[in-house]
């Protein structure tokens, strides 16, 4: 293996590690905030708008719109950026993938944080379920080698070096 190829493989491995660390940070943020919200409920915290059905229905509808638009928009932008890749250079592909992956992950995280915030206000399980769905999506889209290879339309062995 040539020295240039070794350097490129090392850089690719570092980029993959950084992608996973960033993505893991998104998951940890949601998990921490979600755990905090649930613990507060079970130690007796009551939401400031708990029992206000009109506000609850407004937030429920707003949550639905935010969830669909934010998560759907993030996935759409991710797909659009990946389809626009026109380079054969694997390192460049991975850098562009990281950019698109952060957009997709952050859109899911943002919606999930909104759901958890609404849970703080209303103490209604609807919002926890929505946040758990967001957390599940983050887990589903976790950037494993097989997912990255599939989304970049490359062979998985190219990522392993």
Extended strand count: 0
Strand fraction? under 5%
| Unreliable stretches covering 5 or more consecutive residues | none
Order of helices and strands: HHHHHH
Task: Give the structural class.
Answer: mainly alpha
Radius of gyration from the alpha-carbon trace, in angstroms: 19 Å
Give the SSE map:
Layout: H1 3-42, H2 53-83, H3 90-122, H4 125-140, H5 145-152, H6 157-160
Helix pairs in contact: 1-3, 1-4, 2-3, 2-4, 3-4
Structure description:
By secondary structure, the protein is mostly helical. It has one domain. Helices cover 82% and strands 0% of the residues. It has 6 helices and no strands. Helix 1 runs parallel beside helix 3. The radius of gyration is 19 Å and the shape is elongated. The chain starts with a helix and ends with a helix.
Question: What are its keywords?
Answer:
161 residues, mainly alpha
Brief write-up:
The protein has 161 residues and is mostly helical. The protein contains 6 helices and no strands.
């Amino acid at each position: 293996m040539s020295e240039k190829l070794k350097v490129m493989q090392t850089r690719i491995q570092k980029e993959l590690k950084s992608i996973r660390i960033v993505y893991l940070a998104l998951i940890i943020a949601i998990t921490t905030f979600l755990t905090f919200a649930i613990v507060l409920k079970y130690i007796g915290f009551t939401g400031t708008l708990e029992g206000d059905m009109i506000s609850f229905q407004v937030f429920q509808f707003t949550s639905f719109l935010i969830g669909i638009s934010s998560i759907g928009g993030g996935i759409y932008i991710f797909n659009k950026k990946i389809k626009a890749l026109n380079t054969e250079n694997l390192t460049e592909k991975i850098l562009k993938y990281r950019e698109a992956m952060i957009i997709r992950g952050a859109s899911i995280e943002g919606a999930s944080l909104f759901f958890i915030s609404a849970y703080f206000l209303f103490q209604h399980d609807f919002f926890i379920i929505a946040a758990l769905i967001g957390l599940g999506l983050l887990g589903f889209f976790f950037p494993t080698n097989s997912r990255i290879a599939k989304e970049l339309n490359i062979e998985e062995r190219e990522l392993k070096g």
